[in-house]
Structures are given as structure tokens and as C-alpha cells.
Design a protein that fits this description.
Elements lengths: L11 H16 L8 H41 L6 E12 L10 E2 L7 E10 L9 E6 L5 E2 L6 H8 L5 E6 L6 E3 L4 H30 L20
Parallel strand pairs: 2-5, 4-7
Antiparallel strand pairs: 1-3, 1-6, 3-4, 6-7
Length: 233
């Protein structure tokens, strides 16, 4: 018994499991390498998806912040040639009902309980009194903005002083509104850069992705066979 064969020490069940594992590993399908066309399609799809997502996100965030004020400014139809404005008075108000508008507010949704109203009198250069009138001075068409473009402390200190004289632009649609600066070309540029270009990119990339991955060919409708049921007498 002591000098018996060493094969008796081998567990036959373990040897059988080992053989089965080797056979299963041989039967596993090997990964098929991608062709150049498949790789190009994968990278192109990733690029167009990323472009569509970025352009769509830009539209969602930039339209309320920049595009909407630019469109409102163009609709207000401010005069391109400045007129002469003179500050009449500055009023500080508090309370949500007294602050439905503000000459300048840093943050369009912040500090709604305090506001500054600046009233001016404007006359065209040459002392033409036909267009003379009292109006409210706004930093922009919305009367609000975000730093560094809008600095309300400097705006109020410079134009809120009584009898301050400066050039301004009044609205042809509502002559009770004037702005210190107005550039029509700048407003058109904002609309093109912040809305038109992202919108075109979103549409083009969506169409390209649809062409790449959707089967737009016309397929015939399935044929439905109808069976007639005869009355059996």
C-alpha cells in the first residue's frame, strides 16, 4: 500500500472539472476586431452627439440671458442717433409692489425688495422741443444684468446725480424708456452667435445622426391574409 502508484492520490472529480473548463475556454468566441469603417462610424457618432448636446445646452442657457434681451431691444426700436439726457431725480424704493422695475439691478432675480428709479428729461441735439419728454433711464432693456457687464453702483453714481447731462437713446415704441448705450449691430451679433449658430449646429448634427443610424427607406406594409369562414350547414 505504501509503495502504491501516485495516481491514486489524484482526485478524479477535480481532474474532470479541469478538463471541462479547458473545453469551455476553447469554445468561447473570440472578439472580432473592428474594421476601419466601424471605427470611423463610432468616432463620428460620438463627435456629432457631443456637438448636438453642447449646442442644445447653449441654446437653453444663452437664450434667456442674452438672446431674449437682444430681441426685446430690437423690438423697442431705439433711435440710433443719441439725444441729450438730463437727470431729473433719483428715487430709492423698497417693497415688492414698488419695485416692479429698476433702473439697474445686478442679478435679474435678486434683491426684488429694493430698487432705484432714475428719471431723466431728453431733448434732441439742436434744442428741438417737439421730442422733449420725461422718461426712465435703464441700464438695458431689462434693467438688470450680471457683472462685469453691469455694475449698478457705478451706473447709479454716474447717472443718478441730479442735473447730470449725458447722451442717451430713447425708444420709438415707448418714449418713456431711454438707455445710455445702444448698438443695433451688437444686438444682431448676439442673436446670431448665441442662437442662430447653435440652432443650426443642433439641427445639422441631428439630421446627420438620423441618416447614419436610422433606416429611412420606404418599406412595403405587411400583407395581412384574411381567411373566410364559411357557414357549415
Amino acid at each position: 500500500m505504501v509503495g502504491g502508484s501516485s495516481e491514486l492520490l489524484i482526485d478524479p472529480s477535480a481532474e474532470l472539472r479541469k478538463r471541462k473548463l479547458i473545453e469551455l475556454s476553447k469554445q468561447r468566441p473570440r472578439a472580432v476586431p473592428r474594421t476601419c469603417r466601424q471605427r470611423a462610424s463610432f468616432y463620428a457618432t460620438s463627435f456629432f452627439v457631443l456637438a448636438a448636446v453642447c449646442a442644445g445646452s447653449c441654446i437653453l442657457f444663452l437664450v434667456p440671458l442674452y438672446v431674449d434681451p437682444a430681441i426685446s431691444t430690437l423690438v423697442a426700436d431705439f433711435v440710433p442717433q443719441p439725444v441729450l439726457c438730463t437727470t431729473l431725480r433719483k428715487e430709492e424704493h423698497s417693497g415688492i409692489f414698488n419695485c416692479t422695475w429698476s433702473s439697474c439691478r445686478e442679478g435679474c432675480t435678486s434683491d426684488m425688495y429694493r430698487c432705484t428709479h432714475i428719471y431723466v428729461n431728453y431733448t434732441p441735439y439742436g434744442n428741438d422741443t417737439e421730442l422733449e419728454g420725461e422718461a426712465t433711464l435703464l441700464v438695458n432693456i431689462k434693467g438688470c444684468g450680471y457683472p462685469p457687464d453691469v455694475n449698478c453702483s457705478n451706473f447709479t453714481a454716474e447717472y443718478g446725480k441730479e442735473s447730470a447731462v449725458f447722451p442717451c437713446h430713447y425708444s420709438r415704441q415707448n418714449r418713456t424708456i431711454v438707455m445710455r448705450h445702444y448698438d443695433r449691430d451688437r444686438q444682431v451679433e448676439i442673436i446670431i452667435n448665441y442662437f442662430a449658430i447653435p440652432f443650426v449646429i443642433t439641427v445639422v448634427t441631428s439630421v446627420v445622426l438620423c441618416v447614419m443610424h436610422c433606416d429611412c427607406r420606404r418599406t412595403p406594409p405587411p400583407v395581412v391574409r384574411r381567411t373566410r369562414i364559411h357557414d357549415q350547414r
